[in-house]
Amino acid sequence: MRIIPREEYCIGCRLCEIHCIVQHSRSKDIIKAFKKEKRPVKRVEVEEEGHVSFALQCRHCDEAPCVTACLSGAMQRDAKTGVVTNDPDRCVGCWTCILVCPFGAVRRDEIDRRVVGKCDLCPDLDVPACVANCPNEALVLVEE
Amino acid sequence: METYDYAVVGNSAAAINAIDAIRERDPEGSIGLFCEEKYRCYSRPLISYLVAGEIRARGMYYRPANYYQRMKVDFHPGERVVSISPARKTLTTAGKAKARWRRLLLATGFAPFFPPIEGLEEVAYITFISWDDAKRMLGLTSRKVNALVIGAGLIGMKAAEALHARGAEVTVVEKLDRVLPLALDERASDLVAERCREAHIDIITGLSVSRLEGRGGNKGMAVLEDGANLHFDLLVMAVGVRPRTELAAAAGLPCERGMEVDEYQRTASRDIYAAGDAVKAMDVVLGEPSINALWPVAALQGKYAGMNMAGEETPYPGCNSMNAVEFFGLPVLSAGIVNPPDRGYQVITRRDDTGYRKAVLQGDVLVGMLMAGRIERAGILTSLIQEKANVKRMKKSLLDEGFGHINLPPAVRKERIEGAVAGLKLTQDAKTRGG
After folding, report:
1. Do the Cβ atoms of B420 and A48 come within 8 Å?
2. Rounded to whole angstroms, how far apart are CA atoms B108 and B111?
């Protein structure tokens, strides 16, 4: 399962970033997430220049450089689902994954302790929050 | 005598990633792993986190407790291999046990290097590369001590930081003129040194230790070449490391300053492979084999050694020097050439209140990068370095905060994003060819 951006439909509204933050917040409530709680890092980023924009998150690469490079073994790729996830309990925040991710899709997440945050394809949802909340279908979910 | 389809000497990044790769392709072949340490595979770079109290012992392990069992590995901890015979295809341990192998992986790693300093043998100094070293350091810092670290490379600086976290008064002496002289450039070194000094770590550069005097046990005094005396309760020797090539050398395998391997991680002996910190493998930036004694590089080499040992011939895509460090809240990432050796390079730098960034180019090809402070998305530059991408049209924007795939030509962008193909591209190509 991967999320593919369609830049011809992206309007650069950044609602994907907002819903990603809400979905990864403690309360999953937009007002609490932005106003009352420690705000999680966004796991999707809209790149924009001139009239072109698109949203980009972890590609869940088959041969993921972040998994091989991870010092602690926190970054793992599930052999069955292909989803690359970071275990925050084992992550030490060494930033090696940030150094090797070709997509710039891993970010520092220091709200509780020093770890990294990245797209987990929203395991609690049928459709990831960024895809579900895109108003113009500029993010599509591709099953493989 | 036991016969293994695969025997592995070593139990760190290269060894474990090799085993993962072997098992993915050969679920049944017998694997024997021999290592001198008594621990299950742990992450060596995490010893500084352990000493600093940022993680607990269970956070040290690189794989779960049942790993060897699950991977059907005959695990021989505390069994140091003392010799190998390429002709007979055997190995012998310090306990005189022998085993046969069909394919052998040498993942022997590095050992600390000690320069000839007068009086060094008088001091019960410690090193900082193993879990046992970390335990010794924890024991010796249970009360407030004056600690001296000789060497300001990565190991020395991580030792200094860990000692500081333990409440020690720390002094670092480095013979070169700045800290982390290989991993960082001058400006970034200064930024790190500044942070350390603010935390009251004393950093002395440009001076070497001319002699040491023991004062019993771990205590002693260092005399610097300018005559200054430094008293210490604890001495950490972190001058450098050397590849452990003894086994290979004694077996007649070529290993001048690092074991030599071909693109399949194979040594001169057909069924002996080598990977990790003791190996000279292709550096894609330098364009020639080089030792990059770094965890991610060792892991990658191990993975390719494992694939090839299991019969899936796949060339190692090559890697490059890369470092991720953080000192007192200042993260610094670097990859490739950060200190150009001559004037044949173009250097672009940017400094602002978010930090410092640098790109090093050779013609239109990005060959090095460094980011200090704001490090987000550094990996995009690392991947452009590894791909040897032509960045002519993006030079101006390389160091922009918003630099990313938006700056790549639309066709390249689409291929990278939709194919999840970037960075070490050969991996993907090889995979497609293979099946």
Report:
1. no
2. 9
Q: Give the HSE-up count for residue B47: Cα atoms under 13 Å, Cβ half-sphere.
A: 24
Mean pLDDT to the nearest integer, B26-52: 98
Q: Is it the case that residue B429 has pLDDT exceeding 90?
A: no
B167 DSSP 8-state letter: T
How much is the average pLDDT of B20-43? Answer: 97
Domains and CATH numbers, chain A: 1-58+121-144 (3.30.70), 61-118 (3.30.70.20)
Torsion angles phi and psi, residue B66, rounded to 5: -90, 15
Q: In the 8-state DSSP scheme, what is residue B319?
A: B
Q: Which of A59, A60, A95 to mutate to test the interface with B (most CBs of B within 10 A)?
A: A95
Q: Which of A43, A66, A68 to mutate to test the interface with B (most CBs of B within 10 A)?
A: A68
Ranges of chain A with pLDDT below 70: 144
Q: Which of residues 266-305 of B touch A (CB under 8 A)?
A: 295-296, 299-300, 303
- Residue B169, token pair as written in the block: 């008064």
**pLDDT of the residue at B421:** 55
| List of chain A residues whose C-beta atoms are within 8 Å of the C-beta of residue B17 | 68
Calculate the CA B416 to chain-centre distance. 28
The ipTM is 0.97
CB contact under 8 A, B322 and A99: yes
In angstroms, the separation between the Cα of residue B379 and the nearest Cα of chain A is 4
- Please check whether residue A53 touches B, CB under 8 A: yes
CA B277 to CA B273: how far, in whole Å? 13
Closest in A59, A96, A101 to B417, CB measured: A59
First to last CA, chain A: 6
Q: List, in order of start, the domains of chain B with CATH numbers.
A: 2-109+244-309 (3.50.50.60), 112-241 (3.50.50.60), 329-434 (3.30.390.30)
Q: Residue A9 has what pLDDT?
A: 97
Chain centroid to CA B239: 15
Taking every pair of C-alpha atoms in chain B, what is the biggest distance, in angstroms? 68
pLDDT value at position A113?
Answer: 84
- Residues with Cβ within 8 Å of B161's Cβ and at least 6 positions away in sequence, in order, are B48, B52, B196, B201, B327, B328
Chain B residue numbers with beta carbons less than 8 Å from the beta carbon of A45 are 404
Q: Does B210 touch chain A (CB under 8 A)?
A: no
